[in-house]
Design the sequence.
């Protein structure tokens, strides 16, 4: 049975349940009290990690690495929880994790870290990551990371991956109109940008967490500084999208008339 070397790219992001207020700093904006905000593993990257762990469990001899770029102190906090979800080996990069970073520089840092993984077999490489991101929502980071590694077979918006008896990869990816496209790839290396997948969040497993943390802490100590800023860019302003609420109480108005008013309001908005 074919085994894989699965590398998952995933950053940390502020907990989406928190109030996020952007502030303008020189030269790059940031979030107000960003270092004080609780952080989580990016939700899209988390789906990719769960899918990677599930595939590795089905394919004996497979191995999972998590390559994560973020402030080292925040990475340590998040890994205390993530380490209990799935077995992996951490490759840490010490750098910014906010939304005001450049996708190209992020991809360059990730690709360099992946190339430095000892024992990684590129002929068995599956590069996983989030199709989107809660912080770096450019939708291009995984694509550029794959290109820097010379991987031309790429699939984005993946919801399902199946390995056939011949070793080919059957991939279900989202397309427009709420539909899916079924593609087949001969095999690795390949880039898969995951959407939500089909797996629930795994329960915490303290034994897995203890095994992971024995490697996580040394990995954090070895974390190399990574540049992922946005040098040369100028931001005029950053702000939370404004909310509008216009309420009018009426009686005995036909549904058609209400629909016309809503359409007119949206067009004029």
Sequence:
């Amino acid at each position: 049975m074919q085994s894989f070397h699965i590398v998952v790219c995933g950053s940390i992001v502020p907990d989406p349940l928190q109030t996020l207020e952007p502030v303008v700093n020189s030269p790059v904006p940031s979030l107000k009290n960003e270092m004080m905000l609780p952080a989580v593993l990016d939700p899209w990257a988390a789906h990719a990690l769960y899918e990677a762990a599930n595939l590795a469990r089905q394919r004996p001899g497979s191995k999972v690495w998590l390559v994560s770029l973020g402030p080292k102190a925040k990475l340590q906090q998040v890994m205390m929880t993530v380490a209990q979800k799935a077995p992996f080996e951490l490759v840490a990069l010490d750098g910014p994790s906010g939304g005001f970073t450049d996708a190209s520089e992020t991809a360059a840092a990730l690709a360099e870290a992946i190339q430095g993984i000892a024992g990684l077999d590129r002929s068995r490489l599956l590069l996983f990551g989030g199709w989107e991101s809660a912080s770096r929502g450019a939708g291009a980071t995984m694509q550029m990371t794959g290109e820097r590694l010379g991987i031309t077979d790429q699939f984005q918006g993946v919801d399902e991956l199946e390995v056939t008896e011949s070793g080919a990869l059957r991939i279900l990816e989202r397309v427009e109109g709420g539909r899916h496209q079924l593609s087949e790839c001969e095999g690795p290396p390949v880039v898969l940008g995951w959407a939500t997948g089909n797996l629930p969040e795994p329960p915490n497993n303290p034994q897995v967490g203890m095994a992971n943390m024995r490697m996580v802490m040394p990995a954090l100590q070895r974390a190399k500084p990574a540049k992922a800023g946005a040098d040369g860019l100028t931001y005029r302003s950053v702000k939370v999208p404004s909310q509008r609420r216009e309420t009018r109480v009426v009686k005995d108005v036909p549904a058609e008339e209400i629909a016309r008013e809503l359409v007119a309001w949206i067009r004029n908005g």
